[in-house]
């Protein structure tokens, strides 16, 4: 889960995930959306792959990325349950005097 949070900590990587929610995209298509260098984008893609948030399919010189939504959902569920988010609060019984 630490790798997921590391990946999500950067706004560029979060934007990549937002773009991939729309459709699979090539590394070039994604890189064109940002003003950073291609090597910097490559490093961002590596972090996302390491966190298992994206799949990368290489065909020739083209890499196409796809969002792995199930991994992201699992991370969010794990995070929310760790903090009791989304669970019903335990009600205390009132004691009668």
From TrEMBL:
Keywords: DNA-binding, Transcription, Transcription regulation
GO molecular function: DNA binding
CDD domains: HTH_ARSR
SUPFAM superfamilies: Winged helix' DNA-binding domain
Full protein name: DNA-binding transcriptional ArsR family regulator
Record's keyword annotation contains Transcription regulation: yes
Domain HTH arsR-type: start-end pairs: 1-87
Superkingdom: Bacteria
Species whose genome carries this gene: Caulobacter ginsengisoli
Gene3D superfamilies associated with the record: Winged helix-like DNA-binding domain superfamily/Winged helix DNA-binding domain (1.10.10.10)
InterPro entries from the UniProt entry: ArsR-like_HTH, HTH_ArsR_DNA-bd_dom, HTH_MetalResp_TranReg, SdpR-like_repress, WH-like_DNA-bd_sf, WH_DNA-bd_sf
């Amino acid at each position: 889960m630490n790798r997921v949070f590391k990946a999500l900590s950067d706004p560029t990587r979060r934007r990549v995930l937002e773009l991939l929610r729309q459709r699979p995209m090539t590394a070039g298509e994604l890189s064109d959306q940002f003003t950073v260098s291609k090597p910097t984008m490559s490093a961002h893609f590596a972090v996302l792959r390491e966190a298992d948030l994206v799949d990368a399919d290489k065909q020739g010189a083209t890499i196409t990325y796809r969002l792995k939504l199930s991994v992201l959902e699992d991370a969010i569920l794990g995070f929310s349950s760790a903090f009791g988010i989304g669970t019903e609060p335990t009600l205390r019984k009132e004691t009668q005097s």
